[in-house]
Amino acid sequence: MNLTQSQEVVVWPQTHYVYVERRGPFMPNAQQAWMEMHRLLPEVAAGNEIRAFFSLYRMSPPVYRAGVSVAVKPAALPAGLSYELFEGGRYERFTLVGPYTQMAEASGKVWQLAAEQKFALGDGFAIEHYVNNPQTAAAEELITEILLPVE
Fold it and tell me: pLDDT, tens digit, for every residue of 129-141?
């Protein structure tokens, strides 16, 4: 697994975020949330400039949001989608290069490193930012940033 082992502090900007939310165990809910998001994506794209794909999640209680950033607050959304002006903030960034099938292992490793190195974690959402497009990049070249909120 090609995962950066040293952290880097970055600032995630305030972002207009359109998403599908699921609560409960991550493994089934993350996949279901993304399937629903992709099903609704053409309707979102019809009236909005999509800028990035990313998920927001909390470990306890488990909440997973699959979504996209858009240029401005949407005037209307299809049923099943929510909107939030995500405030962003300071994050420890780790980067995975490789297929999405490695995400569970990579995320586990990042949280383990945070515990071992005693990061001053904040109580906000963690982020998985999907930097490039899986439709145009080979699986082994996919780049995913895993960002943990810090104080």
Answer: 999 988 899 999 9
Beta bridge partner(s), residue 52: 69
CB 1 within 8 A of CB 113: no
Whether 49 and 71 have beta carbons less than 8 Å apart is answered as yes
The answer to whether the CB of 73 falls within 8 A of the CB of 16 is yes
Report the relative pairing of strands 50-58 and 8-12 from DSSP bridges.
Answer: unpaired
pLDDT digits (tens, 9 = 90+) for 3-27: 987 778 999 999 999 999 999 988 8
Question: What DSSP designation does 121 have?
Answer: B
Q: Compute the C-alpha angle 31/133/34, nearest 5°.
A: 15
The CATH number covering residue 57 comes to: 3.20.80.10
pTM: 0.93
Amino acid at 24: G
How many domains is the chain partitioned into structurally? 1
3-state secondary structure of 43: helix
Q: How many CA atoms lie within 13 A of 58 on its CB side?
A: 11
Boundaries of domain holding 71: 2-149
